[in-house]
Amino acid sequence: MKRILHVEHSACTSQLCQIRDKVREACYSLAYSESDINLITLVIDEACTNIIRYAYCGESGRIILEIFQHDDQAIFHLQDFAQCIDKSCIKLRKKNLLEPGGLGLQLIYQVMDFVQLLPPKGLVGNILELKKHLPKGSQK
Amino acid sequence: MTFVQKTHLHYQLLALTGEVDLHNSPQVRKQLLDIVKSGNSVIVDFSALTYIDSSGIATLVEAYNLAKNKQLSLTIVGARGAPLQVMELTHLNKVFPMIDSLDEIKG
Questions:
Q1: Is A107 on the interface with B (CB under 8 A)?
Q2: B53 and A42: CB-CB below 8 Å?
Q3: Model ipTM?
Q4: Global pTM?
Q5: Beta strands, E only, chain A
Q6: Domain containing B89: what range?
Q7: What is the predicted pLDDT for the residue at A133?
Q8: What does each of the 107 residues of chain B score in pLDDT, given as a tens digit?
Q9: Which of A123, A23, A14, A140 minimizes the C-alpha distance to A76?
Q10: Looking at residue B7, which CATH number applies to its domain?
Q11: CB contact, 8 Å: A19 with chain B?
Q12: What is the pLDDT of residue A139?
């Protein structure tokens, strides 16, 4: 498994722009199309937003983003150090388009091929793992 | 992200520039809801918008619902690139009136 990116940011909305820039750059190096880069950048941003809003509840904290290339997939790990959340929190629920809430999670499931919560490395925290197939012919 | 509000025919036009995310969507929300609450139909200009996240989309949905309740309208003009992809992915392009250019707005 080859690590493409490892960045650590404070869990603050002012950091989202920088995180998006780094995701775009990493996805570009993985030969994703412009359209896929837009969508992957969006869902990583949504995942970070959910960490800031619901894991840290607006309190200070850190987010570690790692991107790996493994076989024909890109693997995205988003780690926080908040209280462990229940796995049911990332289950997709049926949503009316015009009702508030849950849109970020819906986008994550629509864009990514695989979504799961991994056990934390320590006593606290969460690791969200997202996987997306690489474009055909881009695997080295 | 910056925005400019101006009058276009009998609409209020809110032109967004740059990237709308959780950091700045509360500003957009306030501006947009203020326009609708004051009884104006609104056109949101996406021409110079390069990114919008779900908090920005939720803001649009809230303003759209409020406008509808007041028998006003909310129209999006000039969406392309990443913002258009988000609208399509959420199927909101089928809910919101979306036009390519202000020329399509009739006085």
A1: yes
A2: yes
A3: 0.92
A4: 0.93
A5: 2-10, 62-70, 73-80, 114-118, 126-133
A6: 2-104
A7: 98
A8: 999 999 999 999 999 999 999 999 999 999 999 999 999 999 999 999 999 999 999 999 999 999 999 999 999 999 999 999 999 999 999 999 999 999 998 76
A9: A23
A10: 3.30.750.24
A11: no
A12: 64
- Distance to chain A for B53, nearest Cα, Å: 7
Tell me, yes or no, if A50 comes closer than 8 A to chain B by beta carbon: no
CA distances for A34 relative to A2, A42, A70, A113, A132, angstroms: 22, 12, 21, 18, 15
Closest CA to B101 of B43, B60, B49: B43
DSSP state of A86: P
Which residue in B53, B57, B90 is closest to A45 by CB distance? B53
Alpha-carbon gap, residue A70 to B15, rounded angstroms: 42
Partner-chain contact A98 B64, CB within 8 Å: yes
Residue of chain B nearest A38, judged by CA positions: B82
pLDDT for res B106: 75
- Closest to B21 (Cα-Cα) out of B94, B64, B82, B88: B82
- Output the CA torsion A93→A99→A105→A110 (10° steps): 80
Number of folded domains that form chain B: 1
Q: Which tokens sit at A90? A: 């990332």
- Which residues in chain A land under pLDDT 50? none
- The pair of structure tokens assigned to B18 is 């740059």
